[in-house]
Write a structure and sequence with these properties.
Helices cover about 85% and strands about 0% of the residues. It is an all-alpha fold.
Length: about 425
């Protein structure tokens, strides 16, 4: 057991890192439970498709509304204390929801309101927790650190959590949210055990607008981080367009039912696990620039493969490879950004990156529906392939500079 712990959480990375990973994995399990239980609860209270869609929107909308403010707050206050406070507040909201569900005194409006509040709190918690890793891990180990945190998101949030949430919901509507409340509160306790180095706070209290402007100026003024941020926005537009019709693609193009669609999405997670197992080796032997280039080639060819095939097992294989790429790319891009951004700007630059990520997906989803209506269910995949190919050509040489963004930052500072 000791050897396994050492392999997953090397002692050289320190005890605070282990507390951070434990907190992240536990909290992600709780959030994964809600991924299944939330839609089931909403669907049990209303059959109105507009309200069902609104529930999903209300969980994503807070990133666009509060992302910048969350970044400013994370750079102003004690980041660990902020994560603890927000997660305990989330647990409190969940406790109220559980009580309402247990007594039967809850309506769709209250549930939608709770989902929005929980989504807003998650923005602040995720933004602040995303700044903790560079505070406790050496720059050389940020790749491994990000890989371990992302592995928890993949296994707990996307695989184990939804399965547990579905089973608990069958036992009773309140049970999955009670479990989530306990897990989120436990995550807060675990992260509170971290010991962080003292952070330098600005001597003058600037306005929120000035702090936001400083984050925007730094991001735009650093060519490598600017390119990385634009890359995630633009590639998520193409990704969002294709994935917005994946459920229709599975039914109309591949002839799969609901179970088959679930298997498609599971293959993405399976590929991600393979990426988890191989990331340490890839970082040591391939290099960040090559990882980024190969990853975007894989994403471009994924859209082409799905546009061409009508065979379910081929589509599943393509999605498994894509899942491995998505994990490796996400880990690599976060590592590059964390190494490049000064400690005092991690919250603001990170929140800008997250807003670009979610904004790109939302824009792509809207575009994908229009394209599918005009060009059929494979239209968004052809659009995604063509758009990704053009972007890849334009960005190919720049990715070498992006991968070494930290060198450029160190030279400037």
């Amino acid at each position: 057991m000791g050897g396994l712990v050492e392999a997953v959480l090397p002692a050289r990375m320190g005890t605070p890192f282990r507390w951070l990973v434990a907190s992240s994995w536990v909290s992600n399990l709780g959030d994964g439970v809600a991924i299944a239980a939330g839609p089931l609860l909403v669907a049990g209270l209303t059959s109105d498709p507009l309200l069902v869609a609104l529930a999903a929107l209300l969980q994503q909308l807070p990133w666009l509304l509060f992302g910048l403010h969350a970044g400013v707050l994370a750079d102003r206050v004690d980041r660990r204390a902020l994560v603890v406070a927000v997660d305990l507040a989330r647990a409190g909201v969940l406790a109220v929801l559980v009580l309402a569900l247990a007594t039967g005194d809850v309506g769709i409006a209250a549930v939608l309101g709770a989902l929005f509040v929980l989504g807003a709190a998650e923005v602040f918690a995720d933004t602040a927790s995303g700044t903790l890793l560079p505070m406790v891990v050496p720059r050389a180990d940020l790749g491994i650190g990000n890989a371990r945190l992302t592995a928890g998101t993949l296994t707990m949030n996307q695989l184990a959590g939804p399965a547990v949430g579905g089973l608990l919901f069958v036992a009773g509507a309140a049970w999955p949210f009670a479990a989530q409340a306990v897990l989120v509160a436990l995550g807060a306790v675990l992260v509170s055990r971290m010991r962080l180095p003292a952070a330098t706070r600005p001597s003058e209290r600037a306005t929120v607008r000035r702090d936001v402007a400083e984050g925007l100026r730094w991001t735009w003024g650093n060519p490598a981080v600017r390119t990385l941020t634009l890359t995630i926005v633009l590639f998520n537009v193409t990704y969002g367009a294709a994935w917005s019709v994946l459920v229709l693609y599975a039914d109309q193009r591949l002839g799969l039912g609901a179970a088959g669609f679930g298997l498609l999405t599971t293959m993405v997670a399976v590929g991600g696990i393979a990426g988890t197992a191989s990331y340490d080796w890839l970082e040591r032997h391939v290099g960040l620039a090559h990882l980024m280039r190969v990853g975007l080639v894989v994403e471009t060819l994924t859209h082409l493969g799905l546009a061409l095939t009508t065979t379910p097992w081929v589509a599943m294989a393509v999605l498994a490879v894509f899942g491995a790429h998505a994990f490796v790319w996400g880990t690599t891009s976060r590592t590059v950004r964390m190494r490049a951004v000064p400690a005092g700007l991690q919250g603001r630059v990170g929140s800008l990156y997250a807003m670009g990520l979610f904004g790109g997906i939302v824009a792509g989803q809207a575009l994908g529906g229009v394209i599918a209506r005009v060009a059929g269910v494979t239209g968004p995949f052809w659009f995604a392939f063509a758009g990704s190919a053009v972007l890849l050509v334009l960005l190919w040489r720049q990715l070498g500079h992006v991968a070494h963004a930290d060198d450029a930052t160190l030279a400037v500072t």
